[in-house]
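question for whoever is on the cluster today: can someone run the full assembly for these? two chains, 786 residues total. i dont have access anymore since they changed the login thing
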Amino acid sequence: MTDLATTDSAKSDLETFRAETRQWLEANCPAEMREPVRDEEDVYWGGRNATFKNEAQKVWFERSLEKGYTVPAWPKEYGGAGLTAAEAKVLRQEMGRINARPPLSSFGIWMLGPALLQFGTEEQKKRFLGEIARGEIRWCQGYSEPGSGSDLVSLQTYGEDKGDHWIVNGQKVWTSYADQCDWIFCLVRTDKENKYQGITFMLFDMASEGVSTKPIKLISGNSPFCETFMEDVKVPKSYGEGVPAYVGEINRGWDVAKYLLGHEREMISGAGGGDRTSAIGAAMKRHAAKTGDEIDPVLRAELAMFDVDALAYGAMGEKFLDEIKVGKAHPAQPNMMKYVGTELNKRRHELMMAAGGSRSLEWESEDTDGGKPARNWLRTKANSIEGGTSEVMLNVISKRILELPGS
Amino acid sequence: MALYHDEDQAMLADTATQFMSEQGSIGKQLRHWRDRDCPDGFGHDLWKQMAEMGFTGMLVDEDDGGLGMGHVEAGIVLEEIGRNLTPSPFLTSSVLAASALKHGSDDVKGRYLPGLVSGDSVFAVAIDETAKHRPERIATRAEKSGNGFKLSGSKTFVIHGASADMIVVAARTSGSDADADGITLFAVPKGAANMSHDAVRLVDSSVATNTKFDGVELDGDAVIGEVDGGREILDAMLRAGRVGAAAEGVGVASGAMDMTVDYLKQRKQFGKLIGEFQALQHRASHLYSEVEIARAATIKAQQLLDGSSDQAELMSSVAKAKVAKAAGLAVKEGVQMHGGIGMTDEYDIGLYMKRDRALQEFLGDAYYHAGRVAQMSGY
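^ ran it for u. tokens below:
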């Protein structure tokens, strides 16, 4: 703990940082990048085949990159801005204040990056983190398999040891945007005798011979996920001096995966804020007024109850992030955040559908921007399935937080 | 400000936890006074001890002999009061009345604050006039009379009304019942002529009064703040009280939940600990999540209140509503998961259910506050 004087000076430093950040965002974030994300094209994912939707997206990405703000909390030597947790929070708040879009989104930033920062070698970090920060390589995640969903550790994709390389065979499912990604971080069984200590966290190029993908059409009509097939794919064990083709140790990939699942749950839980924690009642009333509709009293009551839960969850998100920074949060708390955040988001979209009435049923109309209300509503149903189902989250809370027997 | 207790607050929490669990326990206080049919519903000795601990004057400014602490600190004590179901006049005296007295003249402060700090005095607040909390509408009137006022009307759900050395009464000095303006707060001393109490014991063993003012004559110096300027003070007092009640509710919820989770680890049926059954595990885990979120909303509201933020009003209603729902769930699941013994007077879990019910109603329930959240949000 610091004494009062240093606390005060740290506070004033942070306020200076806030003022500078506000100024920088004002000067550098184009107006178009302060609009809500409406569809897939509004998100810049980077990658070998990336194109910018418009000049504003390009400018915003390039200016952010120069400042290290594509990955602000990563160390400078790996392409970040080296912000402290407190500074990163300020940046998030200031970006939120003007609704600034993230300049770059990717599974590399959210998932592989944190894994490498924790488990990677120095050379791996230099190479892969830099590529991610600069938006050069777009990564996808190869976890689930047709027979391994909630019970992920039962995965069967097998890498046969051939000395300096593996020959990988198997199938992954729910690989996000696999058809558009450059590389994959993939859980591969390398020891059939050892369930938990027989999985390796491999990294390989999606352009490798034998890799193919097939988009999955969802109930929302969209296809953000793919099936990924691996047929005799040759994965070298090393990509050069100090750059193994796996994170952590061979056969210890489950440790990395578990660590990352925590990250994924945080991400999906929307703990960092965003629209999942905001109230919706007022917007629903305004929206209804546009079509000459009124909100029924009973629906208003449900909206009010929802808003209480959403605003309270917003406080929880803030508390959770504050506690994580100083190691006060229970290590299994992300599971709670994920459980509540996703259930809340599903309820949010149920209420939005109800408030929207028959208009929100439209599947292709211009008025609904191509059926956004209905498609988004359907999409949220996956929130409590992906990244660990609500039921698995409750199991984890039972076991690790409440320490209930036999769970 | 980070949403957790700083070092000093964590120390206070340790002290409060130990003190309340030792001196304020269910056996020593709630059951003790209940089983003796105590007309106060709480113990004055404990109140004196709380004064010695520095609790009673926590929110009183240092210049007025208090500790000048904030709502986070008061909430720490209230959470332990909630966890131990400790009957005490802390919420009505040290939070509600103290928040009103902050706005009083030096004379009013000098008359009442020393007794609060020393634990010699107990205060109550008289706000509600109907069975549901609706402070927007105040019909109790105080007419100008000579140099003072004549108070007429009736109040209900006045917790500790009969025991109180002073009651803060919200009355109308001008306008009509539903007007926002025209409210004045009065400090009415115990035993004032033409004030009568009809004391009623409530489900949680606390004692409230239906109090009648039948032309109670008050000096001008009984006014807290300005004549006709009481609405703002009343609102500030209500914010403090609601956030305080939320903190106590978090304690009630945690106490009930901990007791229930412990029970799941002891009770065997079908040859297994019942905590091994997934049906109960999932419900317990859901409950844990709700209680954690209620706690977060409460500390957020406390900090906003301490920082005089314009968001404090909204968040105080969010916290009160969220806690009411979470604590309500905690006690209902608590009784259900205890099974038959949960229905017996011998087990404490039922006492949590009773306290929660009274606390939910105090200063507005979840429905009232969700409605306010909607109103404040513009729908």
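summary bc i know u wont read the tokens: Chain B has a mean pLDDT of 97. Chain B has eleven helices and ten strands.
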